[in-house]
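W.,

You were right to be curious about this one. When I first looked at the sequence I had no strong expectations either way, so I just let the prediction run and decided to look at it fresh. Below is the sequence, 348 residues in total, followed by the output.
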Amino acid sequence: MKKTIAATILALACLSICASAQISHHSHSPQSPHQSYQSSLPRDTSFNIAATYQKAKKHHPFITLAEPRLPEGVTAYEDLTYTTLHETPYGERPLHLNIYRPADKKRYPALLLVHGGGWNSGDKSLQIPLAQEIASHGYVTIPVEYRLRPEATYPAALHDLKTAVRWVRANAKRYGIDADHIAISGCSAGGQLATLMGITNGSKRHEGNGEWQQYSSDIQAVINIDGCSTFISARNIEENNEQARKNNSISLTAQWLGGLYDDAKENWTEASPVAWVTDRSAPVCFINSLLGRYRDGKEELISKLTDKGIYHESHQLMANMHTFWFFHPWFYPTTRYMVQFMDTVFKN
């Protein structure tokens, strides 16, 4: 048994490296994977599928991993560059996304998928299984790369994602996307970013100065998978202050936001979706585990959406773990809630 588990973990460690081999004959990458700049970027690789599976398996021995699997009838495009940032500390910095879509000529609504990792780690390959499965239900699904700490702090990630949405609209005809129906989902830290994206439709202060400014970055539907909706709750502020007092160092989240609350109030508030609800904010679907800490700000946000008459849904899976979306038995219930929500908003 131990040998079997060890072999499984070793295989998982190769998944993100080998994913392109099974994804698509439509790869647009001339070399693997952008070696000219990748080695110079500061990266925290601690949040990866192999380590997550190994940790989760200890406490949940019944789980199995939802592995990348391109469904029949789905076409994939990998590592498309949606923007190139110039004059960064690391030189020219391209950012990439993948596209999965039904293998036909029809137009479909799009779903951008934002990975988690505490705004500090992870990569878009973590969203490939969700993206592939959802594409088989009549959506163009798009896992997106964005800059993480320590490469860049807030608001770089938000501005990258806003740019990605504008790129999607600019290239909607080429990839068969219904540009009037674009959703975004995110897991954990990605859930916060996805929610901020959809809540801040039309907010110039959140837009950034990225490419494709002639196109809108508005989002028509948001799916928040176990991500927070605020940084400015009293509980969160005090937790971060206590950690700083105890450890004589600030949390990675506070580092991403530019400091503790008292030192970076503007960023903490600007990055909190609950502070920015307007009539233009998008409908939101919340999909949560049983762990309450990942619902910070949810009820306040729901109250504000309700006041504005904006549609929302909430679902809780019987998962006593945070990263449930990676694993069976929760993978398909998660994708089912995601598809049903988008069908409700876009198709019904």
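Here's what jumped out at me. Confidence is low (pLDDT under 50) at residues 1-25, 27-33. And, maybe more interesting for your project: The CA atoms of residues 191 and 224 lie 4 Å apart.

Coffee later to discuss?

I.
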